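A quick aside before the break. I want you to see a complete sequence-to-structure record at least once, exactly as it would be stored in a machine-readable document. Don't worry about memorizing anything.
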Amino acid sequence: MTYDFSKKKFTFGLWTVGNTGADPFGGDVRAKKSPADLVYLLGEVGAYGVNFHDNDLIPIDATPAETESTKSAFKKALQDTGLVVPMATTNLFFDPIFKDGAFTANDPKVRAYALQKTMNAIDLGVEMGAKLYVFWGGREGTESDATKDPVTAIKRNREGLNFLCEYVLAQGYDLRFALEAKPNEPRGNMYNAVTGNMLAFIETLDHADMVGVNPEVAHEHMAGLNFTHQVAQALEAGKLWHIDLNDQAFGRYDQDFRFGTVNLKSAFFLVKLLEDYHYSHPLHFDAHAFRTEDYDGVKEFARGCMRTYMILAEKAEQFRQDSEIQALLAEINAEDEQMSAFFGAYTSEKAAALRAHNFDRKAIAAHGLQYEKLDQLTNELLLGVR
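That is the input. The structure line, written in tokens, reads:
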């Protein structure tokens, strides 16, 4: 079946389709492509946009002439393809200077350089049209807790983000931030390890209204967590401003597989949540093709990410329209008028009535909830027999 990808804001990073297949055990299997060439590749497969780290676009040691030439070619590719740049970010993890972190590094020269690099990268992102800026603390953590006071690290991180929020406001940029959590890798222990940590941290910032989250499937699955629940918390808080879609076997290293490669049922419930709550921000695929692929395979990878999302969105609509499933859900979630009087805002009268009510625990506990049937119906829907 053919799908119209233009109905969704599907995006990829330069680092995703530009991944050359190298891993800790083997070198490149695909030739490196220029940023402009990768934009044309994404235009060919029908993506909405392209995102980048500063050094995905401009190498860290590029000369001014090289910088201008690369930017010019990239802008032309955007114009030729109609792709946009919704999000940008800073690479604060690859260069050796960040071996002990960036905003939380013990060396103040490293922390100052991280701020400088990020200001420059924010300028670059805004120049290319980005409205959102993501922060992933790739080296913010420790191998040994003897090396850093975690309370001091939290304060340093807060100070850095407060500074950068003020920078954006001073420049008059139309830009918001999103924080991305990860439990481990590349550091042995990462600060702000899961999305809930980030949501709590945001509330301590001077400009919390400027900052949301960018949760990633693989990062929460690495910790064995239910990603849909993490996203739900961000949605309910009004802080889900971006999302990284990929796939990951629970408990493994950061695999960054094509969306839906491993956990189709988990992917379904995630897509259903996003569709049910009308998520309208970009759907970013932070993944890469298998090491086995050439660039034709990379295109299949990119199309596959988008197709899987749209197939699962169709399945979510089918779930909503399935009369048997909906009848079960209505029965499971039926309200009891007698109980309704006990809920809502507290009053002393309501509390007194609740204390006085006689609950038949055994009868309530004996009532079957039909969750087995509902789950099986969901499986059958996903397997295509409903």
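Two observations worth writing down. The longest strand covers residues 49-53. The CA atoms of residues 242 and 386 lie 33 Å apart. We'll return to this after the break.
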